[in-house]
Design a protein that fits this description.
With 264 residues, the protein is mainly alpha-helical. It folds into 2 domains: 5-47; 58-260, MetI-like fold (Orthogonal Bundle), CATH 1.10.3720. It has 12 helices and no strands. Helix 1 (2-35) packs across helix 12 and helix 3 packs across helix 6. The longest helix is centred in the first third of the chain and has 35 residues, at 60-94. It starts with a helix and ends with a helix. This is Binding-protein-dependent transport system protein. The chain crosses the membrane at residues 14-36, 62-89, 101-125, 137-155, 167-187, 193-216, 237-256. Belongs to the binding-protein-dependent transport system permease family. It comes from Pseudomonas putida TRO1.
Length: 264
């Protein structure tokens, strides 16, 4: 019986390892191509070099696109935190029955495809007193709506885990006002969950392409738009760009997972 269980366990591990290897092979090939001096008629590259990474990270246009992507994502996430935290506190502490309605409303951004939303935004903000098409402000607003469901669900789960009402009542019994209890007692308990939500949302927003391409394009070039515009350049250069992007997102995801493990 134990031998059957062990053999079954090894079989499952083998299947998982094979699937992981299949998923890893394209990334490994891209990494190797980004390090190759030339790779055409042979099974392996003729030599290895870091010149493509040096060319990428010394390219002003790439650095500008990278910085603009960071700026837009950080702005959208700051807006999300500033608006969502007070809203969730009020809903869960004063109006808990509204949570079911909020769960429905918060998913509405996913009900409309990004292409359809972009067409409507182009008509609405393309001209007139609120002409924002081609500026980072419209991207911050769009990214805010994208990050909203992730932020809302993560913070809501965290508030339910810490038992908000009991925590607030205990703080008020010790003499704290409502806002003192919220800032000094509740907020520190939300720190890790909030950080995980921010990092995971950031890794998702950093790869967004549809809104950035349709609403701003090259007028405010983000990293994904830059990658699309450079598709006809050197394959080695593009491979270095893809690997750099993947490494950056991987580090963010790893940090979020570590924070999540520390939280649990």
């Amino acid at each position: 019986m134990r031998a059957d269980i062990r053999s079954g366990g090894w079989y499952h591990r083998l299947v998982v390892y094979l699937l992981f290897l299949i998923l890893l092979l394209p990334l490994a090939g891209t990494l190797l191509y980004s390090l190759a001096t030339s790779w055409s008629a042979s099974l392996l590259p003729s030599g290895l070099t870091l010149k493509w990474y040096a060319a990428l990270w010394s390219e002003p246009r790439f650095l500008a696109a990278f910085g603009q992507s960071l700026l837009v994502c950080v702005g959208a996430l700051l807006l999300s935190v500033v608006l969502i935290l007070p809203l969730l506190f009020v809903v869960h502490y004063h109006f808990p029955r509204l949570d079911a309605l909020m769960n429905i409303l918060i998913l509405l951004p996913f009900a409309v495809p990004p292409v359809v939303s972009s067409v409507g935004l182009l008509q609405l903000y393309g001209s007139g007193p609120m002409a924002m098409v081609g500026t980072p402000w419209i991207l911050i607003g769009c990214y805010f709506t994208i990050a909203l469901p992730f932020m809302y669900r993560a913070i809501t789960n965290n508030l339910q885990a810490i038992n908000l009402r009991d925590l607030m009542d205990a703080a008020q019994l010790l003499g704290a006002s409502t806002w003192q209890a919220a800032l000094l007692v509740v907020l520190p308990n939300l720190r890790q969950g909030l950080m995980v939500a921010v990092l995971l949302s950031f890794s998702f927003l950093f790869g967004e392409f549809v809104f950035a391409n349709l609403l701003v394009g090259t007028r405010y070039e983000t990293l994904q738009v830059y990658l699309n515009n450079m598709r006809n350049s050197s394959g080695h250069f593009n491979s270095a760009l893809v690997i750099s992007y993947f490494a950056f997102v991987l580090v963010l995801t790893w940090v979020a997972n570590r924070l999540n493990k520390d939280k649990t």
